[in-house]
């Protein structure tokens, strides 16, 4: 059964990216114990740019833990030194780090049914320059576009709470468009 390995939140803060001050909440940190989930996301979490993150359709961002070894290898290949080689959960900006729910297994409209809330899959995440900065190399977004390891956004169907370590059920929706197919269609311009 799929499992929620970790829950992360962050407040928006200013960081330096390419010599300019940028507001971001990509640096998610683990939360212990139950976290309240409302229609707009997790308690204690913010999104800096509501034109691309947050809102009812993108209230929560989920990412498969199975991709973390790939990102460790990609960062090593990019020649990064002096950074955290552990790459803790939340490093990709996700609120939920999942095990057993890859992009190839999840479709738009599927529901992640937890004990105390239900989250509906809405769309894949699209990488941006803030992702490059968080990962520490300029081709991270392009790498995500090529590899397809994007994770997915969730809307809140039933508010409640979540806790790290709990299992969930993946309930099939209409199964018309997989996250992988949707991501490939959106990333076509990045792959040229």
Structural class: alpha+beta
Instruction: Give the amount of beta strand, in percent.
Output: 25-35%
Strand arrangement across the biggest beta sheet: 4-1-8-7-11-10-9-13
Number of domains: 1
Helix content range: 10-25%
Distance between the termini: 38 Å
Stretches where pLDDT is under 50 for at least 5 consecutive residues are none
Per DSSP, the total helix count is 4
CA radius of gyration:
16 Å
Q: For the residues shown, what is the average pLDDT?
A: 92
Strand tally: 13
What is the level 1 CATH name?
A: Mainly Beta
Shape: globular
- Could you describe the largest sheet, including whether it forms a barrel? 8 strands, mixed
- Give helix and strand order, one letter per element, not per position: EEEEEEEHEEEHHEEEH
What does this structure look like?
Strand 5 (about 35-40) and strand 6 form a beta hairpin. The chain has helices at about 70-75, 130-135, 140-145, 180-185; strands at about 5-10, 15, 20-25, 30, 35-40, 40, 60-65, 95-100, 110-115, 120-125, 150-160, 160, 170. The chain has an 8-stranded mixed β-sheet with strand order 4-1-8-7-11-10-9-13. A 3-stranded antiparallel β-sheet has the order 6-5-12, with no helix packed on it. Strands 2-3 form a two-stranded antiparallel sheet. The radius of gyration is 16 Å and the shape is globular. It contains 4 helices and 13 strands. It has one domain (about 5-185): PK beta-barrel domain-like (M1 Pyruvate Kinase, Domain 3). The N and C termini lie far apart (about 40 Å). It is of the alpha+beta class and about 190 residues long. The protein is about 20% helix and about 30% strand.
């Amino acid at each position: 059964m799929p499992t929620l390995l970790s829950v992360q939140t962050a407040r928006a803060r200013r960081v330096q990216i390419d010599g300019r001050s940028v507001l971001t909440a990509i640096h998610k940190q683990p939360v212990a114990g139950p976290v309240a989930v409302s229609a707009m996301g997790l308690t204690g979490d913010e999104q800096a740019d509501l034109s691309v993150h947050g809102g009812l359709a993108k209230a929560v961002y989920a990412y498969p833990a199975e991709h973390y070894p790939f990102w460790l290898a990609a960062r090593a290949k990019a020649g990064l030194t002096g950074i955290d080689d552990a790459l803790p959960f939340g490093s990709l900006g996700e609120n939920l780090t999942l095990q057993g729910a890859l992009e190839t297994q999840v479709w738009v409209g599927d529901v992640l049914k937890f004990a105390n809330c239900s989250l509906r899959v809405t769309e894949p995440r699209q990488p941006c320059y803030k992702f490059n900065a968080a990962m520490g190399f300029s081709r991270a977004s392009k790498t995500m576009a090529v590899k397809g390891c994007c994770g997915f956004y969730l809307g809140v169907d039933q508010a409640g709470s979540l806790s790290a370590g709990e299992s969930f059920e993946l309930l099939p929706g209409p199964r018309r468009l997989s996250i992988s197919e949707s991501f490939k269609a959106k990333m076509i311009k990045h792959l040229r």
